[in-house]
Specification:
- With 509 residues, the chain is α/β, with parallel strands linked by helices.
- It has 3 domains: 165 residues, Ribosomal Protein S5, domain 2 (2-Layer Sandwich), CATH 3.30.230; 213 residues, Rossmann fold (3-Layer(aba) Sandwich), CATH 3.40.50.300; 91 residues, no CATH class.
- Strands 11-14-17-10-18 form a 5-stranded parallel sheet.
- Helix 2 crosses helix 3, helix 17 crosses helix 20 and helix 20 packs across helix 21.
- The protein is elongated.
């Protein structure tokens, strides 16, 4: 009886879980049986493996082949087990040496001719291999994933064909220059909108959520689409976090591996599962694909109300918890929420050149779809008016992204220095860094500023969360100016960026 064990892995959310592929060849009717909670794609491997082994010049054993995928209580999905199953059979039958599979993790789909194909989630599998101290054997990758593997410190042992990995599994030389950062749209293309650009700079500096309300053609989408150009580049850890999520979802990772933060813009017809993730096996949704980047929801009021309310938990915790019968999965979802909406169903409420034809009831229902609890979690809310014709024709001379980004970088560096100093001084004692107590203490309000906050908050009827969010915005404004204390001017600007989005107007009001 021939036996062999080959290391592989299966995706669980955005992480890869180790799987041992055990091969046993013994007496019985010729054939192959795969056990261990394997789905249809895994069970179909027996036909691909049989054809690939024969096409590669090897021979299939004429005895019973049992393939066990351990642990048996974990569901196995996908076609990535083809390569480890084939390797195990060849080792168990003595056609290749055992050292060919020792201390290596195999992932790959086989064609009927023996060619090795890549599967989604290569970066997640690579991280799993690194944690176990194994070399990672998979199909030859495109330059972008190979760049990611190099950054992980993993030698990618690429295979073009089933025959090739067994000559000491030497890696193929693949030219891989450093990925160039793609060109980003620039804010200089947008003339005017200085208030909106300032609000976006503050949002980028403090990672605040932002909602823009304005009529069609006012430039909301153009403003939002350029936000990535003023965000700091991804750090190495953030780059790998975001790249793994995109790799698992089968998305291109080249821009992320060049340091550009992800920007996701789902259509308003997206389902709750499309935003949060789901399916079988579970795949990341848009909030996870926006991890460490921006989630832009255009036409916010057109989304399903239940779908929008599902965003409340990831906005608070920075992750998504999906509970299914087989397992509970945690997906990362630390993103900036940027949203845009028309002020009413017809889009022209408050517009100076077009008359709104909506009733006040229609306007209330339109804004009611967004919901107060979600609105309360968005720190910055502003109106965006349509530009006059002369301003549109002068596009190209506005404030550029480099200038705005300089303020963002300055604010984040100052905030990091300020937080480090507070930790050194032991302040605020006993409070979490992002707790209300710590936020209030970081503002260092004097008596005059404190009275100003109380007067405005009571007059506007702000909730506790709304008040803390406004103080966070004021703290960010002070960080941009590198000010240790939050002044009345900082507070006044923060309150001005927290406008009420529920106007009571329209054709009958």
């Amino acid at each position: 009886m021939g036996v062999c064990a080959v290391q592989s892995a299966v995706l669980s959310g955005v992480e890869a879980q180790s799987v041992t592929v055990e091969i046993s060849i013994g007496s019985g009717l010729p054939g192959m049986s795969i056990v261990g909670m394997a789905d249809t794609a895994v069970k179909e491997a027996q036909e691909r493996v049989r054809a690939a082994i024969k096409a590669s010049g090897f021979s299939m054993p004429g005895e019973k082949v049992v393939v066990n995928l351990a642990p048996g209580n974990v569901k196995k999905t996908g076609s990535g087990f083809d390569l480890p199953i084939a390797c195990g059979i060849l080792v168990a039958t003595g056609q290749i040496p055992e050292k060919a599979v020792a201390e290596k993790l195999f992932i790959g789909e086989l064609s009927l001719q023996g060619d090795v194909r890549t599967v989604i989630g290569s970066l997640a599998f690579a991280i799993c291999a690194k944690k176990q101290g194994f070399q990672f054997v998979t199909a030859i990758q495109t330059p972008a994933p190979i760049q990611g593997l190099i950054q992980l410190g993993i030698r990618n042992l690429g295979a073009l064909h089933l025959q090739e990995p067994y000559d000491e599994l030497t890696s193929h030389a693949v030219a891989c220059a450093m990925l160039a950062e793609p060109l980003q749209p620039d804010y200089k293309d947008i003339a005017g909108h200085d208030v909106a650009k300032r609000a976006l700079q503050i949002a980028a500096a403090g990672k605040h959520g932002l909602l823009m309300m304005g009529p069609p053609g006012s430039g909301k989408t153009m403003l939002a689409s350029r936000l990535v150009s003023i965000l700091p580049p991804l750090t190495e850890d953030e780059m790998l976090e975001a790249a793994v999520v995109h790799s698992v979802a089968g998305e291109d990772v080249s821009s992320i591996l060049s340091g550009v933060r992800p920007f996701r813009n789902p259509h308003h017809s997206a389902t709750t599962a499309g935003l949060l993730g789901g399916g079988s096996p579970i795949r990341p949704g848009e909030v996870s694909l926006a991890h460490r980047g921006v989630l832009f929801l255009d036409e916010l009021s057109e989304f399903r109300s239940s779908t929008l309310q599902s965003l409340r938990q990831p906005l608070e915790s920075g992750c998504v918890f999906l509970t299914r019968a087989e397992a509970s999965i945690r997906l990362p979802a630390a993103f900036m929420l940027i949203a845009a909406s028309n002020p009413c169903p017809c889009g022209y409420l408050g517009d100076k050149t077009h008359r709104c034809t909506c009733t006040s009831g229609q306007v209330r229902r339109y804004h009611g779809k967004i919901g107060g609890p979600l609105i309360d979690r968005i720190s910055i809310r502003l109106d965006v008016e349509r530009l006059p014709t002369a301003s549109v024709l002068s596009s190209g001379g506005g404030t550029d992204s480099a200038t705005l980004k300089e303020g963002v970088m300055r604010a984040r560096e100052y905030a990091a220095w300020r937080q480090a100093r507070l930790l050194e001084d032991g302040q605020p004692s006993g409070a979490a860094p992002h707790s209300p107590r710590a936020i209030i203490a970081s503002c260092a309000l004097d008596e005059k500023a404190d009275a100003f906050v109380n007067r405005i908050a009571e007059g506007d009827g702000l909730s506790g969360r709304g008040l803390i969010n406004t103080l966070k915005v004021a703290r960010t404004i002070a960080d941009i100016e590198e000010a240790q204390k939050v002044s009345e001017d900082h507070l006044a600007e923060a309150f001005s960026l927290h406008v009420d989005i529920g106007p009571q107007g329209g054709a009958d009001g």
